[in-house]
Protein 1
Amino acid sequence: MFKKKAKVEEKHIPYEAFAEGFRDNWLEPHFDDARFFFFVWDRIQTEVKASYVDYLETPDGRIRSHYRDLESMILEDKFEEFVEAFDEAYSDERW
C-alpha cells in the first residue's frame, strides 16, 4: 500500500573517525618515538580539520587522497620543522 522510503546512505564518516583513522593507520606507523608522534599529532590538528572539511565536500566520500595529502605534508613538507621544534622543546631534558 505504502512504499518504503529508500534510506539515504551517508557516505561521509564523522570527524572523530576521520582523525583517528589517519592517526592510527597512516601516521603512527612512521614514528618509533611515541613522544615525538604525539608532539606532531598535537601540532597538526588544524591541518587535519581542514582536510576533513575538504573530505566532506567530496561527493563520493573517499578518504584515501585526503590521508595521502596529509601524510605528504607532515612527512615531507613539515617534518624538519617538527624535528627542530621537538628538539627545542625537549633540549633541557637529560637522557
Protein 2
Amino acid sequence: MTIDKGSFLVTHTDGNPLDTPIPVSDLYIAPAERYDIVITPPQTGKWYLRSKIAGQETVRIPFYTQGQVSEGPPPAR
C-alpha cells in the first residue's frame, strides 16, 4: 500500500504493539498479516490510498483533506 505524498506510522503488528512505532512510505502486507497504522496525508486536497499486486495497481481509494492535519497518532483509549 502507498499514499500519494503521505506516509504510514505502523503502531501494531498482528494485534501486538510495537516498542517504537515505525514510519514507512510503503507498507507490504502478506496474506493473513495485520497492521495498525496511522496515516499522515498531504496537508490539503485530493490524494489516493493505493494497493498493488505484482506491480499492478489493484485498488485506488480517493480521500480528500481540508484544513489542518494533526501531527501524530490520536491519544490511547
Protein 3
Amino acid sequence: MKTQTLRFNDFMDGTYKIKGKLRKQKIVKKSVSVASSIAIPIALTGGIGAIGLVMTGVKALATTNTSAIMPVASAVPVGAKEWMGEQTLSALAHVLDPVVDILVALSFPIASVVIVGACFMFMFGNSEKGWSMIQNAGLGYVLIQVSPLILNVLKQVGNAV
C-alpha cells in the first residue's frame, strides 16, 4: 500500500480527488497514444505477429478471384463399421513401432559386445564358437536394421488386399 501526503486544505476541499483523476487520465491518454502509434503501422503494413498474419490473410482473400476457385468433391460416405475397421488396422499397424525403434537403437551396441566376446573366444582357443558368434551377431544386426523395411512392406501388402 502506498502512502500519500496531502495538504489539509486539499483534503477538506476534495481537490486531491480531482488531481488524482487528472493524473490517471494523463496516464491513460499516453498509453493509448503509444499503443495506437505502435499498432496502426503493424496492422497496416502486415508486420510480424498475429495482427500481421490476420492482415495478410485478409489481403489474400480480398485479392482472390472467386471464379478461379475449384469446386470441392463431396466426401464418400463411410459406414461406422468400415471406419472402425480402418482405425483398428491403423492402430495395430503402429503398435510395435516403439519396440522396433528401441531394438534398432540397441542392436549396434549389443552386436558390438557379442563380437568382442567372440574375440575373447578366439583368444581362449575356441575359434569355432568365436566365428559362429560373429556370424550370428552380424546376421542379427542386419535383420534388426532391416526390420522396419520388412514391416513397411507387410503394411503395404495388407493395405493392397
Protein 4
Amino acid sequence: MGNILWDGQTATWIDHERALGREGLPDVNKLAALVTMSGIDDRDIQRAAVGISLTLGEQAIREAEASCGDLNVSGFAQQVADRLGPLATRVLQRFPQPHDLFTEGDGTAGGLQ
C-alpha cells in the first residue's frame, strides 16, 4: 500500500506499510485491513465494493474499447471480460475475513480440499 506524490517533475513514493510496521502482510486490500484493525464495522464497505464490482459488465468493456479509437485493445478487452465473472468474489476475498469453526488455517472448510 502506498501513494505516489507527483508535482509535475518529481515523483515521491510513500510506503505506508513500512511506516506502520506492516510490511510482509498477506496479499489483501491493505486499506480494508486497516479499517478492520480499527474496529470499525466494515460490512457496509464490503457490500459497496462488491456492489460496484457487480455493476461492471460487457457494456463497460465495449464502451472502453470503443473510446480507444484506432488502438487495437481487443486482447486486453478480452482479458478484462474473462476476469469479470469472478470479480465480486475476488473483491470480497481482498477483505480480511474472520475465522470460524468451519475454517481451518489453510482457508478451506474443515481443512478439507
